[in-house]
Amino acid sequence: MRIIRNRFIPFGRYTAINLMGIMFVKPHVAITQRLVTHESIHTQQMRELLYLPFYIIYIAEWLYHLLRTGNPVKAYHAISFEKEAYQNDHNPNYLHTRKHFAQWR
């Protein structure tokens, strides 16, 4: 995965974001194995959904959970893609055993 450090992307309080398989990280953030694994899981999710549908579903889920909870942070953590990534980012070998579309299993 290509990693680009810059101060513009990601926006706000987020420290890293994966856009089309490229990880953008703020300059002050330590790039840990856990962070790389988390974003690599997202890259695999994007590939399975052919990229654009990933972003459409991601935003739709976030909006749904935002309306349901009224809390943007809770909405973010309720997204199926984030649940899978957070539950497995501690395991650097996860992508070797991950089943297709695991975010919905």
What is the secondary structure topology, with strand pairs?
Blueprint: E1 2-5, E2 16-19, E3 22-25, H1 33-48, H2 52-69, H3 72-78, H4 80-88, H5 94-97
Parallel strand pairs: 1-3
Antiparallel strand pairs: 2-3
3D architecture notes:
The protein has 105 residues and is mainly α. It is 51% helix and 11% strand. The protein contains five helices and three strands. The protein has helices spanning 33-48, 52-69, 72-78, 80-88, 94-97; strands spanning 2-5, 16-19, 22-25. The protein has a three-stranded mixed sheet with strand order 1-3-2, with helices on one face. Strand 2 (16-19) and strand 3 (22-25) form a beta hairpin. Helix 1 (33-48) crosses helix 2 (52-69).
